[in-house]
Amino acid sequence: MDALYTAVATATHGREGRAVTNDGKIDLALAMPVELGGNGQGTNPEQLFAAGYAACFGSALGLVGRQAKVDVSDAAVTAEVGIGKQGEGFALKVTLRVELPDSLDEATGRKLVEQAHQVCPYSNATRGNVPVELVIE
């Protein structure tokens, strides 16, 4: 694959540090969430992953919608990224909640969401590694 764009970010001090992109557009404190024993005074990798996945999936949905000549511009995608113990390490799970326009029938909506799941780079990266549940609302 020839990359069309490459994002570059550096994190220091792991989950209790800072994440900065090379262009300075992201520069934020990282902190363990309270649920994992941290102080919650910063963002965490799961929140960043959720935001990226939701945005990327929304773009993929827009692409397949345009190809099908179906307006999904009012759709919203919420990504829920869970982390938990798995064996000796940790693993992720994802639920993508897709709110489609009321004007879209259920069958067409489901088809577009499933097509977006095949197109989205985040979906392709997680496929076979991270369970992803698609929920249409």
From TrEMBL:
SUPFAM superfamilies: OsmC-like (SSF82784). It comes from the Bacteria. InterPro entries: KH_dom-like_a/b, OHR, OsmC/Ohr_fam, OsmC/Ohrsf. One of its GO terms (biological process) is response to oxidative stress. Pfam families: OsmC. Belongs to the OsmC/Ohr family. This is Organic hydroperoxide resistance protein. It comes from Streptomyces aurantiogriseus.
